[in-house]
Write a structure and sequence with these properties.
CATH architecture of the largest domain: Orthogonal Bundle
Strand order of the largest sheet: 1-2
Radius of gyration: 18 Å
Shape: elongated
CATH topology of the largest domain: Arc Repressor Mutant, subunit A
Strand content: 5-15%
Order of helices and strands: HHHEEHHH
Number of helices: 6
Helix content: 55-70%
CATH superfamily of the largest domain: Winged helix-like DNA-binding domain superfamily/Winged helix DNA-binding domain
Length: 113
């Protein structure tokens, strides 16, 4: 999804070329097909090629992925997920980043979240 959001649209070969540790071409095609079945991407046909583009805004995709990550690895605990991110950040979070996180927490408290 990141590649599609960055490029705007791409073929399976282009996605494959942009991956740091690429799987097989057929794996990329399968993954794109699954993303399309789930409504995250769509394709247009250009001759024999499929050109994929995202149907979901980057921020919405990030939120969905994060919710899945929290549910899958942290048993739904946002607190545990945030604690893990803060404690294991490399490089360590800057004072500015920690202030931003603190401000988000303060805002959530005020809003009763």
């Amino acid at each position: 999804m990141d590649i599609l959001h960055r490029r705007g649209r791409a073929t399976a070969h282009e996605v494959l070329a942009d991956l740091a540790d690429p799987p097989s071409y057929s794996s990329v095609r399968t993954f794109l097909r699954l993303l399309e079945e789930r409504g995250h991407v769509r394709h247009a046909q250009d001759g024999p090629r499929y050109i994929y583009s995202p149907t979901v805004e980057r921020r919405d995709a990030q939120r969905s992925a994060m919710a899945h990550l929290v549910d899958t690895f942290f048993e739904g605990s946002v607190e545990s997920a945030v604690a893990t991110l803060v404690e294991s950040s490399k490089p360590k979070l800057s004072a500015k980043e920690l202030d931003r996180i603190s401000a988000l927490i303060t805002k959530a408290k005020k809003e009763g979240r």
